[in-house]
Amino acid sequence: MNKRTKVAAVVGGAVVIAGVAGGVAVATGDDGDVTVTGPEADRATQAALAATHGGTANSVERDSEDGATWEVEVTKEDGSTVDVRLDEQMQVVVIEGDHEDAGEGGSGGDD
Predict the structure, then answer these.
(1) Which domain holds residue 78?
(2) What is the pLDDT of residues 60-101, one digit of tens each?
(3) What secondary structure does DSSP assign to the chain, as a single string?
(4) 23 in the same domain as 2
(5) Among 14, 58, 85, 89, whose Cα sits 20 to 30 Å from the Cα of 100?
(6) CA proximity to 70, closest of 102, 100, 38
(7) If we measure between CA atoms, which residue out of 73, 79, 76 comes closest to residue 98?
(8) How much is the pLDDT for 22?
(9) Residue 44's domain is classified under what CATH number?
(10) What band does 104 get if pLDDT is binned at 50, 70 and 90?
């Protein structure tokens, strides 16, 4: 392999690595939380919907804010969106207005 081929291979490899790293950052969102599915996520969804007295669960993520283990984003029946943070035993830690909702003209306040 000549020097030009080696340089091209190194540059090409760096581009691939940068692309993969960027894709992972986009897939996990800007806050580092990762959307999850499965039986535990289903339990978190049920607990969050019970706490909000119904609605629609939009996403379930592993969480580390406010001492929580799970975060479930719920659109309530009145159209407002809240984040329900749950501990490992699926007990509510806090319910707060979704920050993204606040930026779109929603109240963003605690429920």
Answers:
(1) 39-102
(2) 999 887 778 999 999 999 999 999 999 999 999 999 997 654
(3) --HHHHHHHHHHHHHHHHHHHHHHHHHH-TT---B--SHHHHHHHHHHHHHTTS-EEEEEEE--GGG-SEEEEEE-TTS-EEEEEE-TTS-EEEEEE-HHHHTTT------
(4) yes
(5) 89
(6) 38
(7) 73
(8) 45
(9) 3.30.505.20
(10) very low
